[in-house]
Amino acid sequence: MEPSLIQNISFKNDKNVQLFIKREDLIHPFISGNKYRKLKYNIEEAKRLGKKVLLTFGGAYSNHIAATAFSGKENGFKTIGVIRGEEIKSKIDDNPTLQFAKSCGMQFLFVTREDYRKKSNIDYVANLKLKFGDFYLIPEGGTNTLAIQGCEEILVEKDAEYDFICTCVGTGGTISGIINASNEEQKILGFPALKGDFLNGDIRKFAKRNNWELIRDYHFGGYGKIKPELIAFINAFKKTYGIPLDPIYTGKMLYGIFDLVKQNFFEQNAKILIIHTGGLQGIAGMNKKLKQKNLSLIDV
Ligand SMILES: Cc1ncc(COP(=O)(O)O)c(C=O)c1O
Predict the structure, then answer these.
(1) 141 Cα: distance to centroid of ligand 1 (angstroms)
(2) What is the number of the ligand 1 atom nearest to the C-alpha of 174?
(3) Burial tier of 217 (Cβ tally within 10 Å: 0-12, 13-18, 19+)
(4) Distance CA 63, CA 275 (A)
(5) Rg of the chain over CA atoms, in angstroms?
(6) Measured in angstroms, how far is the CA atom of residue 143 from the centroid of ligand 1?
(7) CA of 89: how far to CAs of 35, 42, 78, 239, 290, in Å?
(8) Each residue of 83-130: pLDDT tens digit?
(9) How far apart are the C-alpha atoms of 201 and 122, rounded to whole Å?
């Protein structure tokens, strides 16, 4: 596969910091960005083990659920999505992500938040096997050792020229792969989409280096939370650069990076590579919610 396109984002600033964006979102319309990277070796492994069913976990608007449903269908697997929130069951028709997954043949199990928290528990998974038969388990967000191996391929040799590499963080798998593929002189900045400080340990578990830092100031109140200034930023960004951003991950990261540049966080002439991890399928679901609240929408 060809390395993803890198585009310059010209943005006048005092320190001549140069921004570049790696368009991993263009890899595939449904298995875009880090989802492609995370599923690649997992699908290979499931095939090697002769599995017929993929089972995974996710929230109602999860990019990972959508990508697993599509990729499963493409590769001849039956797919099962264990979805957080029993109440979502009656709202499938209102949810573009689940509608899409269903159209790919995914079967759902809606569980309470309490049960969902047991997703890594051996007994809980054994019970799922009693219910559904044998399956290949892909964890929430797709993050496991094979996913990290896939995410290491986000960077190619030529990317050694960048001083900073920025990525969004959910479960920490994507940034771990990027850290492992970086060199010691580079600094990897992660922008968590969630509130809280539980991620460092997860990343340390997978990452081979210490050249990274999480910037925790741009989650906009927590996972899935947004503010009108974020929508305005995403729309202005698309208008200026012709690049769409999603409201859960990449929009928040880009907002943060622009803010950091304005605050002179980066040194003179620094070259920054920003990974566009995709997630654009989430725009439709967010626009539905914004419409219900009579707020401005994300331009599509
Ligand atoms: C679009 C997008 N970007 C970034 C992330 C974060 O990746 P990770 O969970 O590997 O930290 C996710 C999901 O997890 C995502 O859907």
Answers:
(1) 7
(2) 10
(3) exposed
(4) 16
(5) 19
(6) 9
(7) 24, 28, 20, 37, 21
(8) 999 999 999 999 999 999 999 999 999 999 999 999 999 999 999 999
(9) 21
